[in-house]
Fold each of these.
Amino acid sequence: MRLHFFFALITGLLLMITLRSHERNRFTFEQVQSSAEKLARTPFVELPDVLPAQLKRLTPDQERGIFWKDLHRLWRKKGLPFQVDFFHISNECHTSPIINVVDGRGEHRLAYSPTFFSYLNLTFNPPLPSNLGYAGFYVRYPINKPDSLDGFFSVLGSSYFRIIAKNQIYGLSGRGLAINAGADGKSEEFPQFKEWWLHEPASNAREIVMDALLDSPSVTGAYGFKIHPGAVTSVDVHATLFFRKPISWMGIAPFSSMYLYGQSDSNHFGNPHPEIHDSDGVLIHTGKDDWIWRPLGQAPLFQVYQFNDENPRGFGLLQRDRDFQHYQDLDLQYNVRPSVWVVPHGTWGKGSVVLDHRPSTDPNIDNVVLFWHPDQIPQAGERMELDYTLNFYMNDATLPPLAYSPATFIVNPAPPSSDAPSGVGDTTPVQFMIDFAGSGIEGISPSHPPHLYLHFDPPKTVLRESNIQKIGFGNSWRASFTIIPFKHHIPTEMHCRLMENASKDAKPLSEEWTYTWHQ
């Protein structure tokens, strides 16, 4: 009896020691928060340039020949469903954030060695340092086929990340935070994810968790990501921000994309392809349950559009046009670039969805930025909690649950009107044709068409003609109207929507199409 009691006592003590050891080793998000809070009380220190001279002399083609060896993928030897490759530092990305792995032993810094990479025919004299670290990483998962580990999450530079869903290729880029993006007369800050923690997944995991420490001259932050790849790749984001300095212009859940030209743009810059863009429009679900669609077009000058709202329900950059024939690009496959939809959690208060759009002639440069800008920004020494979900997807019939606009066509059909009122007589008429499809409008009889709601600002804009008719072969509807803008150099804001009837309280049948015409 005494012997049994002794063994039970020893077993209990060993179990208690083991549990306490696990508790000491357990890494939590609160530790990242604590690091961010402490960091905010110290001066900002930028990540240093660690690129050695041997690499600075490389050409872009030589740099593209450096890649991670499959044999050294993180978690490969354990056969885990998620595995990670790492980016070598380069002339483009010459900083090295700290990368940690979190497992049953706690957190530990990921080792670096030049032997983990293939350099093709490159040799270095002297040899590369053994403590360079990594520029970033990309996570693999059998997102497309059960027997293929495909990259779906990529981190490289500042606070940028890129994510795709099943059967997609990389397009737009996300960021942790935007500071002074599009603000008049202020230099934009680019916060950095200066440290990462990659949590080792279970052997049957379908999601991966990672944390990041963000730093910038004005703001620090702790970010937690829970990523679930699939036909829709969803990312639950929790962030705690600490403010070093007062700022006036902040972008939450920012995304950058590229728009060069589309079906209504005349300038193709010598390219043979009918359209070139990663995204073709902005969709917003307002706090008042309205749905707003803003198609992208070539920007004649740098423009900042603000869509004022309170407690937004969702917003995103979409690639609606999925028809390969509209792009004709076998290599870049713009028709399968991801759309992203941001779902805020909790109440975000008053603010605006902001669209920054710059002119561009280069398809390799992102010229479109979208984010949420709150009216009330914490002061220096304060903190801010954020929760939201990012959904990356191909198509979603519920966004919106109304008829949507798949295409916009713009033409200048006629010379200036002789009967135009004073102030607009020298302005060329412009015709707009907006197609609407889906969500029940296909069954509406051509003899009883929807009511066409139109609104213009400035109100002195002349509506020359308008029409709504059914498109027989597509079973959709086309709204068309011709305007004479008020006068040169004054943008014309336009709103178009299909309504059940002309009454004041009529039910909307479609999202609200909105566009800004610049003379």
Note: The helical segments are 2-25, 29-39, 53-56, 60-64.
Amino acid sequence: MRKTRIRHLRWAVFALTCAALHAPAATSTAVQELNWSVLGLNAPADIVIDHWGIAHIFAANIHDAFFLQGYNAARDRLWQIDLWRKRGLGLLAKSLGAAYVDQDRAARLFLYRGDMEKEWAAYAPDSRQWVTAFVDGVNAYVAQVQSGARPLPIEFKLTGSQPDTWRAEDVLRIRSHALVSNIASEVARAGVVCTGGLKADELRRKIEPVGHKVTVPPGLNPCDVPADVLKDYLLATKQVEFGAPAATPQHADNSAERQLAAALDTQSMEGSNNWVIAPSRTETGRPILANDPHRQLGAPSLRYIVGLNAPGLNVIGAGEPALPGISLGHNDDIAFGLTIFYIDQEDLYVYELNKNDPDSYRYKSGWAKMQLVRESIEVKGGASREVELRFTQHGPVLGLDAAKHRAFAMRTVWNEPGLAGYFGSSRLLMAKNWNDFKVAANAWGAPPLNLVYADVQGNIGWAASGRVPKRKNWDGLMPVPGDGRYEWAGFYGKDVLPSLFNPAQGYFGTANEMNLPAGYPSEQNKIAFEWNDRSRIDRINELLGAKTKMTLADSMAIQTDVVSTQSRRAVALLASLSSQDAALLQALALLKAWNHEESTGSVAAAIYEVWATKHLGKATVAKVAPEAARKLIDNGQLQAVIEYLERPDGALGADPTAARNAILLDSLRGALAELNQRLGPDMTTWTWGRLHRATFEPAVAALADPELRAQMSVGPLQTPGSSSTPRAQAYKASDFSVIAGASVRLVMDVGAWDNSVAMNTPGQSDDPMSAHYRDLFPMWAQGSYVPLRFSRAEVDADAEDLIHLSPGR
């Protein structure tokens, strides 16, 4: 095949349509054709890789499609998926050395240890065959690497390690990569209540639905819960680090309270947007489905875009590279997308231990014995380490307090069959209609999701999905005694969660906000009380409702919109304020005149973000909360802080309004001082982009020489937006560098699939020497898109590489 000038013109028109600020690098008109033989493949097949690194797999049968998905994932992401498996199974020390023994032990606490037959049965009927084929494909590539037929990725050379072979059950037993909540918040709340009372926690986290009051569960002493009780949990769920830790400044706060606050900050950054638009509100008369899941960002990308085509299977979209199938995207008939729906799927249990037998805990009228599991952790270059894992009937034991005779364990849906993260999507791959979609939604386990839907018949819908524990006598917001008084009474059945089919307004979106419908049964409101603020969904709905006929470009513009509705409320607090301080007066004028667009060139955006997210909350907490509770409350949750300042109370003294105004001005003065130190004395140069920059570097780059480390690094580039804008771009408070945002963006033209578009960052490959390691990063930063082709003809038209695969002998 050869590229034609027409195809290049088609790309040029497409790039302009997507509002790309720069044309992509010139691509060769020649397609590189390769012929590979693969042992385990049943019939000849093709992998077509387009100009943007997206692999489209065309196989003769479903087995081969999933086999080649695994083979291709290893071709493009072997280091990443191998590390994912080793981290999840607790096998790091075997490859990387003794420094990882503690992390391995922690990870093993959270593995699925139940009945594997029940686990397999919880997913799509043929999922076992799919996972087995996928793993066989990964192993086929690993075998080629081990034989020298394929190159060993540079990261293995840096770490002196080799890729492992996989078992099918490995994919499902790993739980600690999935997003569930709210155990970290439970521990933080216990600490705040212990030191400052229930009222103090209201600044740390807003509770919804409005009107629900937190109470201390009878029998719990909040002061019994140590701040470091989640040490193993945080260790098991953290990313793998390499090299010697950086020198820690003497003033740095590495306390358990600070680590817990940091974990909560990280969790709050991970969300998503999605929406569906009915044919009645689009220019084409076809539905549109848009989705941009927000996660921690880095190199390589968390997600991978892939197409799978075989008789009986035709899907394209994004998923985790170590999982078969896709999590969001479309098949021939339906499109589906996801955001987190904050079901509370975790609880911390506090036990009284038997003073004469520390492995026994009080349960009902007697004592129950912990299960003790001994495992051996292989260690590279040394002797194996024997470790002990303890479990109560609720789950893994996270910690012991010998002095107080207390133990702490976690109950989580991870222990239940069918809770492998995102693999509930196995039931969506071949869904053809709303009924099929609802079956998948009702069976979904974790993470809990807002699943949105659109089909080629013109229907749209939404279904809240996830395994929901029944808590009959408490709300899940604080730890509870483990003596039998607080037990999950099973799980709610199908259709307990709300859903919506063909809404009258013609569109529906979600952005992790509290979206339980008015009148939702009160006994089921115990599913969750901690949600993200409404800033993103309010702006999304504002834009979706602004036009009667929407286009794909409109949805792209919404995904990359950088207007903060949250800032409107915060800045409104300043409306009546003035100052004799010239700098403060200048800043007030800029904020009051601001259009709330957080562009890279905006001075007001820089002032607002430094003020609102770093100084305003801290100043408010310092005035309202008891001193002992402030470290855990930290800056507070911004929406809770803003709402408190809108209606200040007697905690601020005899004149709450005057005290509130003093907080506003003092905190703004502190923000200006920080900006002056960071960016210099000229306020007119304080643009948001000077602070808010994206630089991605894999952790393993710490082991590389300077030249290779530079090659592995991506960026920096200035980026607009923040966590309160639809274009979510969360950052580290220490230096404002971007650390979370849209891991992938999809906008799908339902029924005219070849018109769909996508974006991944920084690229599709994890090979730092590949052009597809970083090629999408500038486009992502600019808010541009690439085609998401579906038909074979259009895929071939955009081909860069064509790999012909034949069964090996």
Note: The mean pLDDT is 93.
